[in-house]
Amino acid sequence: MLEELKERVYKANMELPEKGLILYTWGNVSGIDREKGLIVIKPSGVEYDVMKASDMVVVDMDGRVVEGSLNPSSDTATHIELYKAFEEVGGIVHTHSTWATIWSQSGRDIKAYGTTHADYFYGPIPCTRKMTAEEIEGEYEKETGRVIVETYRERNLNPLYVPGVLVNSHGPFTWGKSPEEAVHNSVVLEEIGRMAASMEMFNENTKSMQQELLDKHFLRKHGANAYYGQKK
Amino acid sequence: MLEELKERVYKANMELPEKGLILYTWGNVSGIDREKGLIVIKPSGVEYDVMKASDMVVVDMDGRVVEGSLNPSSDTATHIELYKAFEEVGGIVHTHSTWATIWSQSGRDIKAYGTTHADYFYGPIPCTRKMTAEEIEGEYEKETGRVIVETYRERNLNPLYVPGVLVNSHGPFTWGKSPEEAVHNSVVLEEIGRMAASMEMFNENTKSMQQELLDKHFLRKHGANAYYGQKK
Amino acid sequence: MLEELKERVYKANMELPEKGLILYTWGNVSGIDREKGLIVIKPSGVEYDVMKASDMVVVDMDGRVVEGSLNPSSDTATHIELYKAFEEVGGIVHTHSTWATIWSQSGRDIKAYGTTHADYFYGPIPCTRKMTAEEIEGEYEKETGRVIVETYRERNLNPLYVPGVLVNSHGPFTWGKSPEEAVHNSVVLEEIGRMAASMEMFNENTKSMQQELLDKHFLRKHGANAYYGQKK
Amino acid sequence: MLEELKERVYKANMELPEKGLILYTWGNVSGIDREKGLIVIKPSGVEYDVMKASDMVVVDMDGRVVEGSLNPSSDTATHIELYKAFEEVGGIVHTHSTWATIWSQSGRDIKAYGTTHADYFYGPIPCTRKMTAEEIEGEYEKETGRVIVETYRERNLNPLYVPGVLVNSHGPFTWGKSPEEAVHNSVVLEEIGRMAASMEMFNENTKSMQQELLDKHFLRKHGANAYYGQKK
């Protein structure tokens, strides 16, 4: 069942330690088959060096395990909320990567300071509000997804134009049209976060970049008039 | 004698350089056989690339060498004090890992800033008080253990809920139910310390995370109602 | 056509990920054949692990593709402006390497703080002014080159004595007599940027080094009376 | 001539890039044969990946090349001054390692903040005064050695108790009884410098450690009553 997607989600998960984004089992990647309405996700707490593609768990949009003998990631309910709300998203990643997590712990957005940021994120990378005690003590993982969605709705953000978020006091979620793209955006967010944090450490002037330059860089890679890379 | 424990303690010691926690011989791991009342510990000042499992030294709870031709770690007396006071602990690690040592040198606790911390440490990671001249000039290594134990007693901390400490002006000790878990906690402490220090470098607001979120994350992984990972 | 230069430019491009200067395709190296008036440059957006020497694109000084089936780097027009203005330059590199980019985002020059800097850069490493909306919305990549050239003209800088620049809110360009030297200078700029930024993070006194020492170090390696290295 | 010492000095030089202390040719190690009054040192500006033990240059105490076809390191005169003044020293290292160089550029001593420091350096790691224009424009490399020696004389420091120095606006020199020990101390200085700098970045209280603890740690590893390591 969904063997190809399992293989891709498995490989995307294996990229997390390879790219230095996680220690131990501190991350998870999922992918979705929109036609079947099924999600493939990493099992919870399984070591990467023994994990196999066949360990990937298939769940439906209500979080019920459809196939697989292991528990799905404890963050599955967060992934589901994001897939429900962000209809163009095909893959989601959660990590505790160092710099993105530092930003989450600071409770602040990452401002767009330069073209590295602008090549991928069309404006600040938002940090969610703190969750309420009720949200934390209730369906916590589902509420985590809801607070992310609320952030995008309230700020009127296009999830594919801002393909990553900082969950307050927690860590990042990133996404993309595919699991592979979601991992790519996770690597990029980590580097952008490292640059922005380090910049603030020794500069008093921490103004965002010019809007014109943000537009130029994002739109030369994304959207109808993109001209970066090879014709496809 | 205790061949299996020696093998495990040896492997746990070898993990320290592999995980980037030490330079040269700047660390040591021990394990305890509670039934026999014997501790297996790394020899003092032996290079990791020539060390063998059979070099591990067996000492009793008074620090007397029971087996082994090498001197035990100079920190042996500290380990013994911790094993005596923390009865559920099965393995102990000492390193001078970069960020944990930086925190020790700052003489401050590491506040709980996010869920990465909360997944492993149930509250701040304590820094011990400075030792007195008498303690330093007396049975220094034993007194180091005593000041750690004092810290846990005075703050009423459960050693398995806060499985690591910062010795003031020195470096970290971590522990766990086994030598392997103690090393795992040492890796985690280093990453938490790096995140917390870096966060403080560019943020004015350095308030601890919400208590509800700390509770949620620690208790979903630890304690009676844990639901992270696979059923065991 | 230009097979040897293509091979060299290819190898110089491959050095960027090897030296840790780039993630993904975030960089490009070119080389010039001054006699033929032709530039060899990396194709746009091609993954490094599949790129071959034969993928290098040959363009003329007007940016027209003379040979090659792929699009040249989107930064080609910047390279051309630099080759036109800096006549002794034989190779150019653009990256988003971490510390040089952080400095670009800070919008400030890197002051000469020590001999590591002075061994390669004869004075501050300049950061360009912000580009105007007209420049950004017009021939952006060409204007990027022009603003670099303007910086060197206005400050009366010798491009071979200051073989690298920080483009404001963007990232570094470096150059040299050859593509290999340009990459070397890119590695050096990254390390100098890291040292200078880190130094400013914990010091109030951030005065430049003495002029005499700057002179001594630059001139013992460069110019008529150099005595560093082996006779050639 | 001095084949064994050449082999050792060569290997000690090769350790510099292996330990991450240098980029390109930014360092040099020498060793001395006190009986013969001859120094073996790395040649100037030779790439590490082609350097051989037979490339090591033998010079006498006046800096004259006694054997070898290559120019000796441009820092040879500094090494000679140190060997002349510090009679127990058997090996010397110069690098531009990142954190030690950052401290040199800051122009400040590294205070003793913890036991990692105290295990190797008995007090602050000194930074030399700025050199005068006359010193820089005269016999610069020799004067560099002289200003180091002046620092130790004026502060009444034992070179083997403080086996490394920061040359103002330049970088570190370290030494030891042998070339191998000098490299070891260079690795240690880099780590101590990283810890101390990072600590100052996020702490207001930057007081040195207690003298008693400094005494305890240095003297349990060094001097007549040392008890760290194995009996020799």
UniProtKB/TrEMBL annotation, chains A, B, C, D:
<keyword id="KW-0862">Zinc</keyword>
<protein>
    <recommendedName>
        <fullName>L-ribulose-5-phosphate 4-epimerase</fullName>
        <ecNumber>5.1.3.4</ecNumber>
    </recommendedName>
</protein>
<dbReference type="InterPro" id="IPR004661">
    <property type="entry name" value="AraD"/>
</dbReference>
<dbReference type="GO" id="GO:0005829">
    <property type="term" value="C:cytosol"/>
</dbReference>
<dbReference type="InterPro" id="IPR036409">
    <property type="entry name" value="Aldolase_II/adducin_N_sf"/>
</dbReference>
<dbReference type="GO" id="GO:0008742">
    <property type="term" value="F:L-ribulose-phosphate 4-epimerase activity"/>
</dbReference>
<dbReference type="Pfam" id="PF00596">
    <property type="entry name" value="Aldolase_II"/>
</dbReference>
<feature type="domain" description="Class II aldolase/adducin N-terminal">
    <location>
        <begin position="7"/>
        <end position="197"/>
    </location>
</feature>
<keyword id="KW-0479">Metal-binding</keyword>
<dbReference type="InterPro" id="IPR001303">
    <property type="entry name" value="Aldolase_II/adducin_N"/>
</dbReference>
<keyword id="KW-0119">Carbohydrate metabolism</keyword>
<dbReference type="GO" id="GO:0016832">
    <property type="term" value="F:aldehyde-lyase activity"/>
</dbReference>
<dbReference type="GO" id="GO:0008270">
    <property type="term" value="F:zinc ion binding"/>
</dbReference>
<dbReference type="GO" id="GO:0019572">
    <property type="term" value="P:L-arabinose catabolic process"/>
</dbReference>
<dbReference type="InterPro" id="IPR050197">
    <property type="entry name" value="Aldolase_class_II_sugar_metab"/>
</dbReference>
<comment type="similarity">
    <text>Belongs to the aldolase class II family. AraD/FucA subfamily.</text>
</comment>
<keyword id="KW-0413">Isomerase</keyword>
